[in-house]
User: What shape does this take?
Amino acid sequence: MTLSASERARYQRHLALPEIGAAGQEKLKAARVLVVGAGGLGSPAALYLAAAGCGTLGLLDCDRVEVSNLQRQVLFDTAGLERPKAEAGRERLASLNPEIRVVAHVVELKAANVRAVLADYDLVLDGSDRLATRYLVNDTCVILKRPLVSAAIYRFEGQVMTYVPERGPCYRCVFPQAADGMVANCAEAGVLGVLPGVLGTLQATEAIKLITGVGTPLLGRLLTYDALELRFTEFRVQRRRDCAVCGDAPSITEPRDPPPPQRALESDAGVRRLTPRALEALLDPAASMRPPLIDVRERWEFDTGHLPGAVNIPSSELPQRVGELPRSGGPVFICRSGGRSLRACTLALEAGVASPANLEGGMLAWAAQIDPTMPVA
Ligand SMILES: [Zn+2]
Assistant: This one.
């Protein structure tokens, strides 16, 4: 795909970069990228990819523009209220760069349509705020062997990672099941408006790198961003041989809709609830009996920082490893913010563990109230 005179003029600053140049710009022109979710993340990602000359850009969203979106979804403006996001976004991107083709997908991704939608694209950016969509997109990218740049935001924090088939872990390797903390959506938890601007721009950066082949992609690394501390942190993550979709013997070989929501948390009668202060008292060296500590976070989270003596059994492995739990002694279950550990408590109760306890608020609460030096992933 050669560049026209008007394209050469538009992309001058790319052409001036030896690492990109005409060859890289032609690759961008030939690229077909799907942006899933025209929200806080999808807005900057799509704007920059359109500006950069990504030849075919798909924008997928089934929602309409609401006034509360405009605090962060910079693809839209007040005049576009009530319009389908994918349609309003397509017009904005086309006016930004008439050289490219923008395709609006006003659909909700489901197992039934995800293959057909993704089939037309070489690369996927996921900025969806729905957990079910996040897993569906990941699984389908693994199955169809499509690279995926995935990002998520929560309050003042965000994370991003890149998956390339055969070259590193997928999203499900890192989050085998819903991790607490990152799952509440923006409507419930609130989000700093500028936060997705940083993460969505990182997604576009990764996409441009993958398309042009420059630089080192974010493979096997989960990058987190804490806007309040203005700190980026990187976690090494590995492909799991037992990953349900990219592992050696995958159980997910076709896109599938998520199973019905997990058992409601009302069934936690019998679980003791410990505040960080109460746990601190139990762990006092002078206390007669220290309870066993079971940390159910994923290994990379555990390795970042954990309580002395804690045993790591990731919640994703707990159903298979329930036999390893101490039957007595009132084991205390710990996770990042208290959600996974509460589910682990109910599982332990069902398995006959006496008097399990949940650290309420998890390691985040522990770090906030007891030990500010404790690193929490
Ligand atoms: Zn995987």
Observations:
- The mean pLDDT is 91.
